[in-house]
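User: Please fill in residues for this 111-position structure.
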């Protein structure tokens, strides 16, 4: 059966502060496992460094400019993406993201 997850009821990841959306934490017995979330990043916001151990990620930048950091400190790949760009992140890739604007929010949707 289908499941509706109301945006107002969306949980936040305690490590990153970002929305969880659809994932195994919000939908029990999710099969196959995947995630889907829409996030609004405040001006200048940077997420904590984290990884996704069970799923790869596809990200679509809907608004603004976001800098993505991939890999461990000291050996990072940096990608600057803007509205309309897509980013693929493999399973287990360490990453974080930064809203490059000090005045505007940035938005992205990720799987």
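Assistant: Residues filled in for all 111 positions:
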């Amino acid at each position: 059966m289908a499941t509706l997850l109301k945006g107002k009821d969306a949980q936040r990841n305690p490590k990153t502060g970002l929305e969880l959306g659809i994932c195994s934490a919000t939908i029990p017995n999710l099969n196959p496992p995947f995630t889907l979330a829409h996030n609004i990043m405040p001006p200048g916001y940077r997420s904590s460094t984290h990884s996704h151990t069970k799923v790869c990620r596809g990200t679509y930048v809907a608004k603004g400019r976001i800098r993505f950091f991939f890999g461990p400190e000291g050996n990072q790949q940096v990608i600057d993406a803007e509205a309309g760009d897509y980013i693929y992140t493999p399973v287990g890739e360490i990453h974080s993201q930064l809203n490059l604007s000090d005045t505007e929010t940035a938005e992205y949707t990720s799987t």
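For context: The mean pLDDT is 90.
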